[in-house]
Amino acid sequence: MLFKSLTTLATGAAFFAGVATAGDVPAIEVVGNKFFYSNNGSQFYMRGVAYQADTVNQTSGSTINDPLADYDSCSRDIPYLKKLDTNVIRVYAINTSLDHSQCLKALNDADIYVIADLSAPDTSINRDEPKWTVNLFNSYKSVVDAFANYTNVLGFFAGNEVTNNYTNTDASAFVKAAIRDVRQYISDKDYRKIPVGYSSNDDEKTRVELADYFACGDDDVKADFYGINMYEWCGKSDFKTSGYADRTAEFKNLSIPVFFSEYGCNEVRPRLFTEVEALYGSNMTDVWSGGIVYMYFEKPISTV
Ligand SMILES: *[C@@H]1O[C@H](CO)[C@@H](O)[C@H](O)[C@H]1NC(C)=O
Ligand SMILES: *[C@@H]1O[C@H](CO)[C@@H](O)[C@H](O)[C@H]1NC(C)=O
Ligand SMILES: *[C@@H]1O[C@H](CO)[C@@H](O)[C@H](O)[C@H]1NC(C)=O
Ligand SMILES: *[C@@H]1O[C@H](CO)[C@@H](O)[C@H](O)[C@H]1NC(C)=O
Ligand SMILES: *[C@@H]1O[C@H](CO)[C@@H](O)[C@H](O)[C@H]1NC(C)=O
Ligand SMILES: *[C@@H]1O[C@H](CO)[C@@H](O)[C@H](O)[C@H]1NC(C)=O
Ligand SMILES: *[C@@H]1O[C@H](CO)[C@@H](O)[C@H](O)[C@H]1NC(C)=O
């Protein structure tokens, strides 16, 4: 505390990490089971797009092809994202040794938020041999450190599809430990209260119980939000046939925000995107907080 007040004296109040300055978008907060703009309390409903070309670049040999470290690419794409009325992108893996300030600033200026996975191909919780280690925590911390200063960072995923069926539900306990520790780290560093959650697959035997598991417990242990990667609606379907109606009934009472952390299906061509009307219509908006369409780049269903 003393250190903090001394630095304030030395450099002025705007020094504090995460303090918005003019031109920064308002931070997004979780209250109950919805997201809200912190400036005026309006609900924030995700109109998201997944945005990561590939996690592996065979040419350079680097395992992370960082979507926010290349200003030429992100500045090329932001106008297209704006045309779609995008208000959030999901990035899956970032290289914390690179600089992200230009892309994050350009996204901020376009009123686009970022939700980032803390894991990466070489640094994630392995469902077959789950562990939560100091090394892994350090790599998660480095992503938090790289992004915490930006008010357009909406949140972090502490895992993506770690449990993928009933045989490996034990792995989720390690993800929940990661959520708890990352949130504590954010608080210890005096960063803004950035939400930390989880992105699940859509396995019929585990989806409801997993959501309940992540949502339960005191504020210091539960997830701040829950995403589900949803590939049920293919081609010309409808609210009932697709399974969206059943999922909406099942997730209706979840006590934390729930949204599609990926959605889409490209098994039927051309891809019609008819699910968009359902997701943003009154059958769903009371329960869900929108979704993140998979994805900006053409590729098969995520296996990250
Ligand atoms: C609240 O603020 C957000 C972000 O500036 C803005 O998009 C939204 O329209 C505002 N809501 C109202 C009711 O003014
Ligand atoms: C992959 O790496 C090579 C060599 O560094 C670079 O020229 C190329 O642009 C990268 N590809 C992508 C998709 O970023
Ligand atoms: C991160 O970027 C550095 C600098 O370009 C590179 O040396 C390293 O291989 C990259 N790491 C990963 C995991 O891609
Ligand atoms: C975040 O802001 C603080 C205070 O301005 C600064 O010291 C720090 O280097 C910034 N971190 C990043 C990753 O930009
Ligand atoms: C569960 O997932 C694991 C890991 O992907 C896989 O090896 C196993 O076959 C799956 N089991 C069932 C019953 O689906
Ligand atoms: C949701 O809560 C209502 C009111 O408590 C209850 O009647 C209903 O069965 C619950 N639905 C689910 C899917 O848990
Ligand atoms: C809302 O649900 C009703 C009843 O299933 C259905 O007829 C209607 O098409 C749905 N609306 C949208 C936009 O999907």
Structural commentary:
This protein is 30% helix and 17% strand. The longest helix has 18 residues, at 171-188. It has 304 residues and is an alpha/beta fold. Mean pLDDT is 91; it is low at 1-18. The protein has one domain: Glycosidases (TIM Barrel), CATH 3.20.20.80. The protein has 9 helices and 11 strands. The chain has helices at residues 2-11, 71-83, 101-109, 134-147, 171-188, 207-215, 239-242, 244-251, 275-279, and strands at 28-31, 34-37, 43-44, 46-50, 88-91, 113-117, 153-160, 196-200, 226-230, 258-263, 290-293. The radius of gyration is 19 Å and the shape is globular. The strands form 2 sheets. It has an 8-stranded parallel barrel with strand order 4-5-6-7-8-9-10-11, surrounded by 4 helices. The relative contact order is 0.14. Residues 26, 37, 39-40, 42 line the site of one 2-acetamido-2-deoxy-beta-D-glucopyranose.
What is the topological layout?
Layout: H1 2-11, E1 28-31, E2 34-37, E3 43-44, E4 46-50, H2 71-83, E5 88-91, H3 101-109, E6 113-117, H4 134-147, E7 153-160, H5 171-188, E8 196-200, H6 207-215, E9 226-230, H7 239-242, H8 244-251, E10 258-263, H9 275-279, E11 290-293
Parallel strand pairs: 4-5, 4-11, 5-6, 6-7, 7-8, 8-9, 9-10, 10-11
Antiparallel strand pairs: 1-2, 2-3
One 2-acetamido-2-deoxy-beta-D-glucopyranose is lined by residues 249-250, 252-253.
